[in-house]
Amino acid sequence: MLQVEGLTTHYGPVCAVEDVSLEVPNGGIVAVLGANGAGKTSLLRTIAGLVRATRGRIVFDGEPVTQTRAEDLVRRGLAYVPEGGGVIGELTVGENLRLGALWRRDREERARTLEEVVAVFPRLAERSSMHANTLSGGERQMLSIGRALMGRPRLLLLDEPSLGLAPIVIEQILSVIGELRRERGLTVLLVEQNARSALSVADQGVVLNVGRVVAKGEANDLAGDEQLRQAYLGLA
Amino acid sequence: MSRFIDLTLNGISSGMIYAAVALSLVLIWRGTRIINFAQGGMLMITTFIASSVIDSSGSYWVGFVVALVTGLALGAVVERLLVRHVEGGPPLNAVIATLGLLILLQAVAGMIWGGTPRSFPPAFSIRGYEVSGRHVLFGPFDTFTVLAVLGMAAALAALFRGTGLGLQMRAAAFDPLAARLQGVRVPHMYTVGWALAALSGSLAGLLVAPAVFVGPNTFDSILVFAFTAAVLGGLDSPVGAVIGGVVLGLSLSYVSGYAGSSLVTLAALVILIAVLMVRPQGLFSSPRTRRI
Questions:
Q1: B287 or B91, higher pLDDT
Q2: pLDDT tens profile A173-224
Q3: Average per-residue pLDDT for chain B
Q4: Which fold has domain B2-286?
Q5: Nearest-by-CA chain B residue for A148
Q6: What is the per-residue pLDDT across A47-102, written as a single tens digit (0 to 9) for each?
Q7: How is chain B split into domains, by residue range?
Q8: Do A90 and B178 touch (CB under 8 A)?
Q9: Which of A82, A89, A151 sits opposite B183 (nearest CB)?
Q10: B183: which chain A residues are within 8 Å (Cβ-Cβ)?
Q11: A236: pLDDT confidence band, cut at 50, 70 and 90?
Q12: Could you give phi then psi for residue A170, rounded to 5 degrees?
């Protein structure tokens, strides 16, 4: 579904991502782990088309998308939920959701998708006419994932969905992600600082440190690797 | 008392014109955080074009429609060719660019149509209605002015609130990055925003031209009044722009009637400064939602 080869990204003179390669198989969940500043968000932003790569290749669904911009990638089925969700607080919950599907031509399809999304997150229907900036952190995260689903993506990039949320809410959101994969074959690339919760839902993990890949493997192996845990993941 | 009524009616009518120009400033400010100093020049050009079309076709309404369509096109072209390059840059760049465009448009208008202001016909009679044997300062053309501006404001509100395009435009204005991630082509939205703003401005030009005539500089004061009205309304609230326009129209009408017409421009500046000192966020904008 997604292949990243030798990807390097700079912010001005600062190298944020260096020679990163990874693969997300169709229907898989891959977690990118690492401490604050490891380059996780920069990696996702580059894949999502918000930042241009300096070197390397990104292939989505067999087609090179290294130079494709974010607004076009959405149309191809690659949705990106940024850190904090990126919900538009001045719009209502319903408007945020509608916005996620507006690029799709077919009105009936859009209405059907809205029903599906509301079935996943019933809370969003209750809050439909409220402004998004009145939502709690957990509801915001639900809204941003729900809005991304409105475009019926095949690949979902999630940046720190657990940031600042209560453990019980994190669990809810992660279980929804697992459900979406099982029931709709959604492929997910997940960035997390919270390694424990990310590895609980992911099949595979990639550990970044200062922009480089330092470890890669099955989620269970990574979670069990004592050295790795102490060195990069901050787990006691 | 009858004088007060006259001044009030007159204030509402001219306030609607300020409202239309203020609306065009607000639409652009909301979308791109740029104050379009060239707005007065753009509506001057479209009104000149209307004047020429009316002369050659003999039909007021052909000129009216041509001016509105030219306004749409001019707004889009200005955004594409000029403003696109200064969007997102330091604010001063946009100020210089739009001021430069204003000077350019005024010079071009002078070259094509000459520097002497020419008269411009109203759509309907400007003679006031007769109420109990007296002509009030409000006639069919004032009715048309009020209805045209309210109609356009309502149409814009319906577009923004009720359509997918409007939702995408609002998203692009509030949070361009989040909008892009939902597939919104943000630059297109800016182009549409500038086109609609210029449409609103060109309507105002057609409505005010019978009173101020059409010349390269005759619309300068309108921009000052409109800017004051927009600031009064909070600069990013379209509803505020309309209300601000009417409040300013009434205030200036009373100043003109009771204190002398030579004080009108001064009064507008005093109101502008007073608003900026006392309530810089305007009357209808909550500071929380303001960016910058």
A1: B91
A2: 888 888 889 888 899 999 988 888 888 889 999 998 888 888 888 888 888 7
A3: 92
A4: ABC transporter involved in vitamin B12 uptake, BtuC (1.10.3470)
A5: B182
A6: 999 999 999 999 999 899 998 999 999 999 999 999 888 899 999 999 999 999 99
A7: 2-286
A8: no
A9: A151
A10: 71, 74-75, 102-103, 151
A11: very low
A12: -60, -45
Task: Tell me the Cα Rg of chain A.
Answer: 17
- CA dist A178 and A197 (Å) reads 12
Note whether B164 contacts A: Cβ–Cβ < 8 A: yes
Residue B290 binned pLDDT confidence (cut-offs 50, 70, 90): very low
- Is any Cβ of chain B less than 8 angstroms from the Cβ of A103? yes
Q: Which helix (H) or strand (E) holds B256?
A: none
Shortest alpha-carbon distance between residue B182 and chain A (Å): 5
Superfamily of domain A2-233 in the CATH hierarchy: P-loop containing nucleotide triphosphate hydrolases (3.40.50.300)
Q: Is B180 on the interface with A (CB under 8 A)?
A: yes
Q: Quickly tell me which residue has 């090179």 as its tokens.
A: A64
pLDDT score of B156 more than 60: yes
> How much of chain B is helix, strand and coil, in % rounded to 5?
75, 0, 20
- Averaged pLDDT, B142-156: 95
> Measuring CA to CA, which residue among B284, B287, B254, B285 is closest to residue B268?
B254
Output the pLDDT for position A39. Answer: 87
Measured between beta carbons, the chain A residues lying within 8 angstroms of B180 are 50, 69-71
Cβ separation B183–A50 shorter than 8 A:
no
Contact B182 A91 (CB under 8 A): no
Place of tokens 């076709």: B57
Going from N- to C-terminal start, the domains of chain A cover 2-233
Of the candidates B214, B236, B234, the one whose C-alpha atom is nearest the C-alpha of residue B275 is B234
Give the nearest partner residue to A74 out of B175, B182, B186, using CB atoms: B182
Calpha distance A218→A38 (Å, rounded)? 20
Judging contacts by C-beta atoms under 8 Å, the chain B residues touching residue A50 are 177, 180-181
Tens of pLDDT, residues B31-52: 888 999 999 999 999 999 999 9
Residues of B in contact with A99 (CB under 8 A): 167-168, 171, 179, 182, 184
Q: Distance, in angstroms, between A21 CA and closest chain B CA?
A: 24
Number of A/B CB contacts below 8 angstroms equals: 65
